[in-house]
Amino acid sequence: MSWTITVNRQAYKLAEDKRLIDFLREDLGLTSVKDGCSEGTCGTCSVVADGKLIKSCLMNLSRLDGAEITTVEGLSPREREVYVHSFAECGAVQCGFCTPGMVMAAKVLLDKNPDPSREEIARVITGNLCRCTGYKKIIDAIELAARFLRTDEALPPEGDEARVGDRSPRIDVMEKVLGTGKFPDDYRFDDMVYGRALRTPYPRARVDRIDISKALEHPDCIAVLTATDVPNNKIGHLIPDWDVMIPQGEITRYIGDAVALVATGKRESLQEVLDLIKVDYTVLEPVLDPFEAMKDGAPRIHEKGNILSSERLVRGDAHKAVREAAHVVTETYRVSWQEHAFLEPECAIAWPAEDGGVHLITASQSIYDEQREISMMLKLEPERVHIRSALVGGAFGGREDMSVQHHAALLAWKTGRRVNVRLSRYESTLVHTKRHPMTMKMTTSCDEKGRVTALIAEIIADTGAYASLGGPVTQRACTHAAGPYNFQNIDISGRAVYTNNVVSGAFRGFGVTQSAYAMECNLNLLAAKCGMDPWEFRFLNAVRPGDVLPNGQIVDPSCGLAECLEAVREAYESSPYTGIACSFKNSGLGVGVPDFGRCILSVEGGKIHIRTSAACSGQGVAQVVTSIVCQTLDCDVSHTVYELPDTDRTPDAGTSTASRQTLFTGEATRQAAEDLKAALEAVGGDLGKMEGMEFFGEFGPPTDPLGSAKENPISHIGYSYGCEVTVLDEKGQIQKMVGAYDVGTPVNRTAVEGQIEGGCVMGLGYALTEDFANPGGIPQFKLGTYGLFRANRVPEIETHIVKGPGYVDVAYGARGIGELACIPIAPSVAHAYFRLDGRMRTSLPMEDTFYRKKKSD
Ligand code: FES
Ligand code: FES
User: Fold this and answer.
1) Beta strands in 587-708 (DSSP E)
2) Quick one: pLDDT at residue 1?
3) Looking at the DSSP assignment, which residues form a beta bridge with residue 421?
4) Distance between CA atoms of 109 and 130, rounded to whole angstroms?
5) Is 852 helix (H, G, I), strand (E, B) or coil?
6) To which H or E segment does residue 11 belong?
7) Cβ < 6 Å from ligand 1: which residues?
8) Span from the CA of 52 to the centroid of ligand 2 (angstroms)
9) Nearest ligand to residue 127 Cα
10) Where are the alpha helices (DSSP H) in 245-284?
11) Which ligand is nearest the CA of 40, by number?
């Protein structure tokens, strides 16, 4: 039996049947075809077959005899230019993992319908998920591409400029549209072998015996490792409580725990070898409820007990203020897990280094976090763990902890081979952290004029099996629980509690998404109680420059929250079924934690190399630092070379978390560029005379710890502010989202809009549709049924970028935007439904809406 298939005009005669995706990626090296799920859900593997859009992960070669397949690599030169230009111009690319699939969907449509409507475009990309952009700019890009393709209009010349505050196209658009940019699994090596973990089927069980003898006999087996092979079995982002593998005799803590690791010569053999490992378990009752976990006598998940961390923030006398208040609202809110669902499943490739250490290619939020944890595990000096980043296919907080990197490094170190460890979509969901479920009891009060007087809050967070960032996330939920309002009396307590559930950790908003939902809903109930319009209520109570935030910090002159409210007022008043909520988010770790952005600018080969480890997971760090260099030096983009993070080349700029890189690494880059500029002037502007010179920038001013005795402590060096209005129709369908956000100076306006639109759609999923079912501590997750918004369901999104009255001269006045827009969405939607039917929905995802029926129905 044999088949003939034509791929990008080249015919192939094939005798072995396999999935089309494997043929295209592995045999032909066409890495524009991405494997985001292997389940037919995400569309990243989309190709054109005889004029139809197909998902290559679902199709075997035997079903395609005689077919003509086109991938992005097979587009005509004109199509390539048009798609690159259009996606660049419209800001349609962030992480880029979905992009080639989107281009294929566009091609199928535009080949048949050269002038489609926006609805038709949305429909054709409905099978293609994008977790980053919110789809709006992708639809814009396809609309623009259609115009160029049907008119033969010449493309405008590509610009070479990037300046702070402009709309210059991202520097990484071409490689992402054409699929030539490499994510870890796109790297090809002849000597590569493959690794995978065996995971416990039980959230809590004693591992009585692990028998690897049969697995070792498999002809493709290279190695089977267990905990006894690990130099140091405990690692962790902040607290080393996470087992690399659960040792024989120990108890598992959640369903993602690894028990053994396997390396084989072929990826196809991995499961066969894993199936030959025999593990005897004694199954134990898991602890799945944080309130149960806190009870005396509950089984201890970790030796020190089940409370990971406790917080208490007190200013003024909240209890007295509540007693004396004109109006008081007390309500309890419950929010569930949210899955990051970045489209690129985790993958790392590791191999032995000449110095006895390891090399790795990874995709994470910080190569230096990986270096620290892997060196801890292998008991090596950090300098012997050499990590370089590939492109990162989205993160949103879910790539802060180790997932595959440590397993790849261990396998490489033990076997001496080059090992690729990649997670399946389901494994990815088990392994990386989730947004914390929280139960939040909120009491808010105001006087008879509607001025807020006090907040009393109690927050319990289910942090799951391991610490990850559960402590700081719960802390941030507490520090921001009073919102950007003039509360001068607060009593906020929070606890992060271990359970046998999936691990909770960082996720866009970092705890603030949860507590802001509770606070903003309570404010809307409070406004209703005192008979005030919720917009007026917020305008009265919103902080302004010179005010004092609930944490005691004085609001800086650039705060534009009142301006944001003014920008959405018309939208808020446009219909009886609108909802409103505000948000604020810190830029940087703050609260006394050392925090640095760093950058080296070096002159090499007559160009300025921009070297920083600040990870770009799609949000656009590369563009930020490039724009800042070009602005400071008044040079063009082509005079610069942006380097991907590499522990041997780029300085530690901290993690891409806490909306910090634009401000921290942005300012570090500006300082390095100022120094380079001075040196350039000294040599008469001749860069050629500066070959080999390096300029180092570092920015990390101190902040004050929580509980500081200072009256006005600096908790964070910057905050961004925003508000969002949801417009419903009378059936409860969202017609429009209108947001206004103050991020200081937007370094790149298109990128800031992209962050806002993407955050908005992610927030809509959190509010309405994303339901992470976890019965018995075992996630029942499928990407296709989890509830991600697809292009055809996204409402119109209108974005206003607003500036406050003053300016803070750091990083050209820029502040972070990564997390901010995700925060006000759920409470804004809840408020709109409250105005529609009089019921404040106090849990997420909301039930009984246009988008999701009541569970009991
Ligand atoms: S990889 Fe084929 S649809 Fe996701
Ligand atoms: S740009 Fe679409 S998934 Fe990241």
Assistant:
1) 597-604, 607-611, 640-643, 694-699
2) 81
3) 195, 348
4) 18
5) coil
6) strand 10-14
7) 35-45, 55, 57
8) 23
9) 1
10) 270-275
11) 1
Cα 386–Cα 390–Cα 392 angle in degrees, nearest 5: 125
Counting ligands in written order, the one closest to the CA of 44 is 1
**C-alpha to C-alpha distance for 655 and 478, rounded to whole angstroms:** 22
Separation between Cα atoms, residue 399 and residue 402, nearest integer Å: 7
Tokens of 578: 């609108």
Which residues of the chain fall short of a pLDDT of 70? 855-857
- The residue type of 348 is A
Q: What is the dihedral of CA 238, 240, 243, 248, to 10 degrees?
A: -160
Ligand 2: distance of its center to the CA of 394 in Å? 7
- E strand segments, 176-249: 192-199, 205-211, 221-225, 234-235, 242-243
Question: Which pLDDT value is given to residue 853?
Answer: 85
Return the H-helix or E-strand segment holding 78: helix 77-90
How many Cβ atoms from other residues are within 10 Å of residue 213's Cβ?
10
Residue 641 CA from chain centroid, whole number: 25
Going by C-beta distance under 8 Å and a sequence separation of 6 or more, which residues neighbour residue 285? 204, 299
Write down the residue that tokens 């609930």 correspond to. Answer: 550
Q: What's the gap in Å between 44 CA and the centre of ligand 1? A: 5
Q: Is the peptide bond before 100 cis (omega within 30 degrees of 0)?
A: no
Q: Which of 640, 629, 641, 643 is nearest to 390 (CA)?
A: 643
The predicted structure's pLDDT at residue 280? 98
Given ligand 2 and candidates 125, 130, 762, 789, which is best to mutate, with the most ligand atoms within 8 Å of its CB?
130
Pairing of β 192-199 and β 418-422 = parallel
Length of the chain: 857
Locate 558 and state its tokens: 């650039």
Which pLDDT value is given to residue 152? 84
What is the phi/psi pair of residue 433, to 5°?
-70, 170
- Which residues does ligand 2 sit against, CB inside 6 Å? 93-98, 130-133, 343, 394, 618
Secondary structure element (H or E) that encloses residue 678, with its range: helix 661-682
CA 741 to centroid of ligand 2, rounded, Å = 22
Residue closest by Cα to atom 2 of ligand 2: 130
Task: Looking at the CA of 105, name the nearest ligand.
Answer: 1
How far, in Å, is the centroid of ligand 2 from the Cα of 97?
A: 5
pLDDT, position 856: 57
Looking at all shown ligands, the one closest to residue 761's CA atom is: 2
Burial of 594 (0-12, 13-18, 19+ CB in 10 A): exposed
Label the pairing between strands 242-243 and 68-70: unpaired
Kindly give the distance from the C-alpha atom of residue 328 to the centroid of ligand 2, in angstroms, as a whole number.
43
| Atom of ligand 2 minimally distant from the CA of 131 | 3
Label residue 393 exposed, middle or buried (CB < 10 Å: 0-12, 13-18, 19+): buried
The model's pTM is 0.97
Specify the residue with its C-alpha closest to ligand 2, atom 3: 130
Q: Are 366 and 651 in contact (CB under 8 A)?
A: no
Ligand 2 atom closest to 176 (CA): 1
**Residue 158 pLDDT:** 87
Residue with the smallest CA separation from ligand 1 atom 3 is 40
**Centre of ligand 2 from the C-alpha of residue 809, in Å:** 32
Mutate to test the pocket of ligand 1, among 20, 24, 32, 37 (most ligand atoms within 8 A of CB): 37
**Ligand 2 centroid distance, CA of 138 (Å):** 10
Percentages (nearest 5) of helix, strand, coil residues in the chain:
30, 25, 45
